[in-house]
């Protein structure tokens, strides 16, 4: 990949990745607010403004490094705060808020795949403009790069976050199993689990050459993307 292609890849990746993580986090906040917890709303996190959700490492540095290495763009936004004490049922509320983010990514992946099919099926109507080159060809080249990448990135985020490992969204499943008296301790551990998780998820695979997360994501997000996209 030459420098122009790499720059294009990074820019398109950013255009896909930013809305994916923003909608993911906003979905958490909207779900919590609907269940009676105004924490995210008060913190100003129920907004689609990316600046409100940027984490310097997870939103900027990590995905940039992944893109520069020609790997799948990956990262995370600043987690939306919520307080399970507001929920009528803490376990159920925690589960619903946790699943809201991956559900948003699934919805966006389906929209991206549907638009890709629409572009693909309508090719005879615009093939003349495409083969003529110019702005029209550049626009369709962009769509052919953006829509599949947007779909795949959302699927990666969905399946990755569904892993039942703190601090990922799938760990909210644990809240359904933990006794009420231990929930406070669990939430404290979950809040500080990110540094440990990052070491396990990225440093260990790099050092050992074995990456179970990549195997899992290829088997789930990769195969589902192959089914959804033309």
Gist?
This protein is mainly alpha-helical and 230 residues long.
Characteristic key phrases:
230 residues; globular; mainly alpha; 10 helices
Q: What proportion of the residues form beta strands (DSSP E)?
A: under 5%
Low-confidence residue ranges: none
Distance between the termini: 24 Å
Number of E-state strands: 0
Number of helices: 10
Mean pLDDT over the residues: 85
Protein structure class = mainly alpha
Report what the structure shows.
It contains 10 helices and no strands. The model has no long low-confidence stretch (mean pLDDT 85). 71% of the residues lie in helices and 0% in strands. It is mainly α.
Helices and strands, with pairings:
Layout: H1 3-34, H2 39-42, H3 56-68, H4 90-121, H5 123-131, H6 134-161, H7 172-175, H8 183-191, H9 194-208, H10 212-228
